[in-house]
Amino acid sequence: MGTKTGAHIVWDWNGTLFHDIDAIIGATNAAFAELGLEPLTLEKYRELYCVPVPKFYERLMGRLPTEAEWELMDGIFHRYYAEHRVRCGLTAGVEELLAGWRSSGRSQSILSMYVHEELVPLVRGFGIEPHFIRVDGRTGPSGGSKAEHMVRHLGSLSGVAPERTVVIGDAADDAVAALHVGARAVLYTGGSHSRASLEAVGVPVVDTLEEAVDEAQRLAA
């Protein structure tokens, strides 16, 4: 008897809707400098980036950071990022894509691993909040996977079926989270991962968010 639900997109924020890769590289390099590590180029970052983030640091340091190092680096990263975030904007074409998806009678939401209290005013500040039925940021410690957050996120959306849901993000972890709840995923190359590392996941990989939405429409049909 269940009510038929339409297609739903769960958008990632950082590196997807929000084009902040330059601030992220800068923040990462500021954290590395603290431990005397060499700065990374964008290419190198995309090639090596992974979650959980301490694992990413292990790829660079040759060992896992100690708890003290992790806390130090995490603190510097967030401080630097907060300063440089103000110069970042939405990815080109985002407003039109969100408005178009919504006006076709379909729903969308944001699930981000960015701190919830900071995410909401940011989304609101860009004037795009009305396009989403829910905006969820991370609560709890940073550095983990999105999968459990995705379970809670979808669980709190009424009338949204996982099999009609497509997660659009820039990280392999977005696809892992989607599969974890029985949803589909489309990965976008404009953020933290290289095309090669995204293609290894086995879901569609696109270079623009417009293609991502077209793909989501196809997958959720």
UniProtKB/TrEMBL annotation:
It holds the Pfam family Hydrolase_like. This is HAD hydrolase-like protein. The lineage of its organism: Bacteria, Bacillati, Actinomycetota, Actinomycetes, Kitasatosporales.
